[in-house]
Amino acid sequence: MREDYNAKIADELEARKLREFVDDLSRLYMDAGDLEKLVNRVRREAKDLGFRLIESTDAGQ
Fold first, then answer.
1. Contact 53, 46 (CB under 8 A)
2. CA–CA distance, 14 with 56 (Å, rounded to integer)
3. Least buried of 14, 15, 20, 52, by fewest C-beta within 10 Å?
4. What DSSP character marks residue 47?
5. In 3D, which of 6, 9, 13 has the Cα closest to residue 21?
6. Phi, psi (5° rounding) for residue 46?
7. How many Å apart are CA 55 and CA 35, to the nearest integer?
């Protein structure tokens, strides 16, 4: 009986960890979408101002 209880508790903890992971991943995905929108806006505004943007990700290094 105690083993069943311990197994149930372990399953609940694992499920909670999985839900937290999925929530974190979802937030990161939304943040990435917001960042992409910001980058696109900066690109449009820079283009409107006549600037040429460097597309390389390692340009500042």
1. yes
2. 41
3. 52
4. H
5. 13
6. -65, -40
7. 16
CA angle, residues 27, 28, 32, in degrees to nearest 5: 120
Whole-number Å distance between alpha carbons of 36 and 7: 43
- Report yes or no: 43 and 53 within 8 Å, Cβ to Cβ: yes
For residues 41 and 54, which has the higher predicted lDDT (pLDDT)? Answer: 41
Angle, alpha carbons 29-34-36 (nearest 5°): 95
Joined tokens for residue 40:
């696109």
Question: Model confidence at 43, in pLDDT bands (50, 70, 90)?
Answer: confident
What's the average model confidence in pLDDT over 5-18? 93
pTM over 0.85: no
